Amino acid sequence: MDDNKILIFDTTLRDGEQVPGCKLNTKEKVELALELERLGVDIIEAGFPISSPGDFESVDAISKIIKNTIVCGLSRAVQKDIEVAAAALKYAKRPRIHTGIGTSDYHIKSKFNATQDDILQRAVDAVKLARNFTDDVEFYAEDAGRTQNEYLARIVEAVINAGATTVNIPDTTGYCLPHDFGNKIKYLVNNVPNIDKAVISVHCHNDLGLATANSIAGVINGARQIECTMNGLGERAGNTSLEEVVMVLKQHKELGLYTNINTMLLNPLSRQVSDVMRMPVQPNKAIVGANAFSHSSGIHQDGFLKDSLTYEIINPEEVGADGSKIILTARSGRSALAFRLQNLGYDFNRNDIDVLYQEFVKVADVKKEVVDIDLKIMAAAYNNSTAVSN
Ligand code: KIV
Ligand code: ZN
Questions:
Q1: Banded model confidence at residue 390, pLDDT cuts 50, 70, 90
Q2: Quick check: 331 pLDDT over 70?
Q3: Dihedral of the alpha carbons of 325, 326, 331, 332, in degrees to the nearest 10
Q4: 92 C-alpha to center of ligand 1: Å?
Q5: C-alpha distances in angstroms, 73 versus 44, 92, 172, 226?
Q6: Residues 176-193: pLDDT tens digits?
Q7: Which site among 149, 176, 180, 282 is 20 to 30 Å from 143 CA-CA?
Q8: Residue 86 pLDDT exceeds 80
Q9: In the chain, where the domains are located
Q10: Domain 7-277 falls in which CATH fold?
Q11: Is the CB of 172 under 6 A from ligand 1?
């Protein structure tokens, strides 16, 4: 594999679909899987086959229809889970079993009432079993973010020896700070003797709003796969948002990293996911929010209208967004008003705009946003008044 390519592992259909109210049926999941393949993701986590007959059916249907992308099924480090995942992936051209277990003391002691050695053995057994069904096995060390690095390194080394080809280091609770998470990945790179035999993956949750930052810290320090979802959907505060990490890597060329994502499809797919999951996207969401390319304050509008790069680091077309918008509010200035009136076909000079602006701010103070019809009314009133006075 090219060492600078970052694999995009999309888990919208698994971690994303865990969001209350976002449950999808098989038809909806298949439609989204096809779109994710078109987007260029490298791996689609299609579901958790043992969790329900419906999810088994979805993973099976996605396996049958997807041609090039790796299709992945989740399992716990439990024999039945792994067998059921393998059965659901039977028809996949490129099947991956994703198996794993909690590795932090919270999990080992509170959840499993076990020891580190027991958990390590269960991890190794799970990976060996999964390898009987496919050569592509990913191991997740759940709550790796809060797992001691020495033990994490031991378990990662053991699962790679057992046949894991990807090792997933999740910050399951979204607890880590970017430099700590980056150092965790660096520690594994430097302390796991067989680390070159596997791809390191990062799977960050957003409980402190740090999922994107942590994922980027992960790849800067040697991870080569990011697990993420469209619109950042996922358990609790969500997962790393696909559109954000992809655009961070695209914008920051100095990192020397790239993905296979066709970024022009990001906004259309974001809308489709939002519609089918009935989960609105917050307007100020980076890349895909309705306001991501809207300018409403006078200072910004003036700079943007002189040179868009003054206030926009991404060309909206590059991410399939509708285009930049100049929104008129009580904070907007004369240049924005002139621009919008010009777009409506009016040809006012500077003096006209000065007069119209006085009327505009009165209307804007009352209304949250001044829209085209308000502008037309203002322009008509102004034209009438000047016609009468002439
Ligand atoms: O957040 C997490 O740790 C997970 C694992 C199942 C990969 O979703
Ligand atoms: Zn997760």
A1: low
A2: yes
A3: 170
A4: 22
A5: 9, 10, 18, 16
A6: 999 999 999 999 999 999
A7: 282
A8: yes
A9: 7-277, 294-389
A10: TIM Barrel (3.20.20)
A11: yes
Mutation probe of ligand 1 site: the residue of 10, 18, 76, 142 with most atoms within 8 A of C-beta: 142
Per-residue pLDDT reduced to its tens digit, 139-183:
999 999 999 999 999 999 999 999 999 999 999 999 999 999 999
| Contact (Cβ atoms closer than 8 angstroms) between residue 86 and residue 130 | yes
Q: Which bound ligand lies closest to the C-alpha atom of 138?
A: 1
For residue 15 and ligand 1, the question of a CB distance below 6 A is answered with yes
Q: Mean pLDDT over all residues of the chain?
A: 97
Rounded (10°) angle between helices 372-389 and 350-366 = 130
First to last CA, the chain: 75
